[in-house]
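Fill in residues.
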């Protein structure tokens, strides 16, 4: 168990480095700024379903996955493979371990028009909240049964095995990751990427995630980490105190990705602490549009917290 947690932490660190390199090395993209031009790309789902059907008559799993899925990958799948070292071997093992999840994907694809309708609706709602937003494509992917949602310069990367039967969760993840993309564009790619490489940056990371959660709440009326938010609101004052104490020593285990493997309390409480700080700042602001842009840009994390007055008695 301890070994798995160490591996998980290392993988999360590597993902952070990959995001850092991606956003730092590529010029600002030129994606559409009109919500109606946003695209959801599910070519990789079609390719996976073809592979899945082929597997019922061909026992060479690795060859089938490579030929039908990996070799035909979209730009989003290629980006995902680079970030997570996804391989036919990993997918073969995941399908064997969780056949019930992968068995749902053909029906999900068969009803993709519902997914597209939902996507168009949430993108139009996103445009009302952020009229200046940019819309990279959202890629629906199949991975090794990991609940991955990430922003990238290629677009939003969303694996479907954990959300294939939960449309609302898919909606939340899509908006959350699109919000991260807006942060990167508002801050500038290099500054956004630097959040990952700067040591002792617990506050910046919590506010980055909290900002994406806050935008998600404005668009959908809810956030991705609902269990964490409920827990925080029931224990808000002691957790505010703990957060400030942990910031002093940069103790992230309770708040960020290191918390995923434990079962004692909800994971990712730093996301909702960041959300509460952003919400407090926004609620106090008289110019809401300007406040929202400031949340996206986040020029100085410490000054932002002070101006939010969230920790004031």
């Amino acid at each position: 168990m301890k070994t798995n947690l160490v591996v998980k932490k290392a993988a999360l660190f590597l993902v952070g480095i990959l995001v850092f390199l991606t956003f730092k090395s590529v010029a600002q993209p030129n994606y559409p700024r009109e919500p109606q031009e946003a695209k959801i790309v599910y070519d990789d789902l079609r390719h996976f379903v073809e592979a899945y059907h082929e597997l019922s008559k061909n026992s060479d799993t690795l060859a089938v996955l490579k030929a039908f899925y990996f070799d035909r990958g979209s730009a989003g799948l290629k980006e995902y493979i680079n970030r997570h070292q996804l391989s036919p071997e990993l997918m073969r093992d995941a399908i064997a371990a969780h056949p019930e999840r992968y068995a749902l994907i053909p029906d999900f694809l068969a009803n993709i028009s519902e997914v597209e309708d939902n996507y168009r609706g949430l993108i139009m709602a996103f445009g009302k909240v952020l009229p200046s937003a940019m819309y990279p494509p959202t890629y629906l992917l199949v991975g090794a049964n990991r609940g991955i949602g990430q922003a990238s310069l290629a677009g939003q990367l969303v694996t479907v095995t954990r959300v294939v039967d939960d449309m609302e969760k898919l909606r939340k993840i899509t908006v959350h990751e699109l919000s991260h993309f807006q942060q990167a564009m508002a801050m500038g790619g290099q500054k956004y990427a630097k959040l990952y490489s700067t040591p002792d940056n617990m506050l910046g990371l919590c506010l980055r995630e909290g900002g994406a959660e806050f935008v998600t709440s404005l668009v959908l009326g809810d956030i991705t980490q609902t269990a964490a938010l409920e827990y925080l609101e029931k224990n808000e004052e002691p957790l505010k105190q703990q957060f400030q104490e942990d910031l002093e020593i940069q103790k992230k285990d309770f708040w960020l990705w290191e918390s995923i493997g434990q079962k004692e309390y909800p994971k990712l409480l730093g996301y909702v602490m960041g959300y509460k700080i952003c919400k407090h700042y926004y609620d106090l602001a008289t110019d809401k549009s300007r406040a929202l842009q400031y949340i996206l840009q986040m020029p100085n994390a410490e000054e932002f917290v002070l101006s939010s007055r969230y920790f004031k008695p």
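Residues 2-187 form one domain.
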